[in-house]
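Q: Study each token:
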Amino acid sequence: MFEKILVANRGEIAVRIIRACKDLNIRTVAVYSEVDANSMHVQLADEAICIGKGPSSESYLRIERIISAAELTDVDAIHPGYGFLAENPHFADVCENCNIRFIGPSSRAMNAMENKAVSRVLAKKAGVPTPPGSDGVVDNEPDALAIAKRVGYPVMIKAIAGGGGRGMRVAHNDISLLKGYHSARTEAEKSFGNAGVYIEKFIENSHHIEFQILGDNKGNIIHLGERDCSVQRRNQKVVEETPSPLIEMRFKALRKQMGKAAIRIAEEANYTNAGTVEFIVDEKGGFYFLEMNKRIQVEHAITEEVTGIDLVRQQILIAHGEPLKISQGDIQFKGHAIECRINAEDPCDGFRPSPGRIEMYYQPGGGGVRVDSHAYAGYVIPPHYDSMIGKLVTYGKDRREAMDRMSRALGEFMITGIKTTIQFEQLILQDPNFRRGVYSTNFVEQLLSGSRREMIQDRA
């Protein structure tokens, strides 16, 4: 087994990886920016090296500094977590060229799924349906208008790179298409350094459902069920759960169909390690490939709760060259799990980020409650990174028990000194439609409309 692993990330995912390493008796090295000197992952690691100033462009995205830290501390492998360099094939290549194992897919697999436009082509080769749209990057306005006319409005303009809802716009007519085309390109260039966009049919009242996969270096690929990520704000996930209420209540046959489709896509890309295949499902049960995330997901914890499989541990074992010791038939799904992303944001001010010092921090506990976080009382949240400060996960024998535990746990979660999304997520858990499992990707938009917005302000 590896003797020492460098964690090329920060925040809760860095803490999560360090814990998995400790369970395997592997020593860890943390890298950190100047503003993260007091972060939890720095305190938990066996060694820590500062790699630059606060902005990620001067620290967590600097490949040469991370490699220098890895060589200085003589590590065997690097785990990139999610975000930053996790899906960068050049980083994976540099690691391998320096005789450092990259804990993730190979650069070849990443290049096979290079971006969302390329992934659509691969999905078609695998026989998996994709939304009608462009065959690749849309380079100009006339092409954009022609594609929209062919597939019919509404359409979605999407950045080919990155994620997190950035570089995405919905257009309902020619005017909004041209406006959205340019604003999406500008945002994509700023966020990902790549202005490329493509266009596909926007499926209204859709459901965002993804499948977790694991693949080893021997050609074995399995899926670990679905996660429903339809509760989103501006295409950014807020609440996730497994199993999906839509599949459980209306389309149970989809689980096997979509699981097989996810595996076919991974096989087509010769994929190894952990990954997630994302789909859109319409109201009639039709499903379409969206993209593949070539890394561990933020929401991996709920899959761990219902399968009992430690996904980060599996990542490390696979990267070490060990074959999967579990087959598809071994996977058993028990109970229900829900995750709420706890963000340092102000719901009453357009979800504006709320960096600053945490004065009091008390996290919930008890049976069926899990908190993955790097926050603590006295911790100063820097303004340079994503606003998520933790994930609250609850597990129950069924969906009702998981929801009740989540409502209770959110009520116990106390953070002062900054604004958080806790109160907003309490409203989600109390919403009658959410309780019934009847929701789609426009759920949060409806929740934030009219009198409900006033309720949020009153509760906050």
